[in-house]
Amino acid sequence: MTGFLHIVYSAFTIVFLATTLQANSTIVPVIVDVEASGRGVVEITNLRTQPTLYNIEVLKWAVVDGVDEYEDTRLFIVSPPSFKLHPGKSKKVRLGFRGKRGTPSEQTFRLIVAEVPSEVKKAAEGTSTLDVTLRHVLPVYVAPQTPGGPKLSWTITTQGDTATLRATNSGNQRATVVSVGLHPNPNQENTPVYANNSLAHVLAGSWREWQVKLPEGMLPGKAVYKLTGLNQTYQLANHE
Known about the structure:
Blueprint lengths: L5 E5 L10 E2 L2 E4 L3 E3 L4 E8 L5 E13 L2 E6 L3 E4 L2 E4 L4 E8 L9 E11 L3 E2 L5 E2 L4 E9 L9 E8 L2 E8 L5 E8 L10 E2 L5 E3 L4 E7 L10 E4 L2 E4 L7
Parallel strand pairs: 1-21, 4-14
Antiparallel strand pairs: 1-17, 2-3, 3-5, 5-10, 6-7, 6-9, 6-11, 8-10, 11-14, 12-13, 15-16, 16-20, 17-18, 17-19, 21-22
């Protein structure tokens, strides 16, 4: 049967995120694009009421067979890699990329910011409690020699009442998929049936899959996907 896919994604950024990450800390920016010089910087502010220790590291990031994989890397210098911030204080963390720049495809990493409260809180009943360590995980991208953006191709397979959607990125930069779903009727502008946990990064040269539970009697219908503000229609090939 022939179907259409409803996809909404942004080529380079998570469209509904603000430019800062805020919980017990504020981190600016939340996406680190390394400059041509090989340098990047983030600023961290402690919003807690007690001093907090921050430990910073960078991991190599890849998507292998649809799954995120991380490994240690020495391709970045982090300065400083560890420091303490008093309440309300800020600190800039500088990243220096010492790997090869100008590669054919975008290089991808994760910046890990671990915040460890350095003081024990006293609960009202007199018992001691300790804040848990929080880990913020931010994407870090090193641009390719000739940025060409993502190039996604989509396939769909069905088994029983479940449709599996796969996006393969043959471009040289990442795409961030915000939501994926199927229209219940090919001739109407219905609300799509969305996959759970749709948000995902499809890195250059990788693929991701999503599963959508199909209501009884549903055929995949008309679809629209959004690429950096441009609405387009994508028709899937015949599939079983």
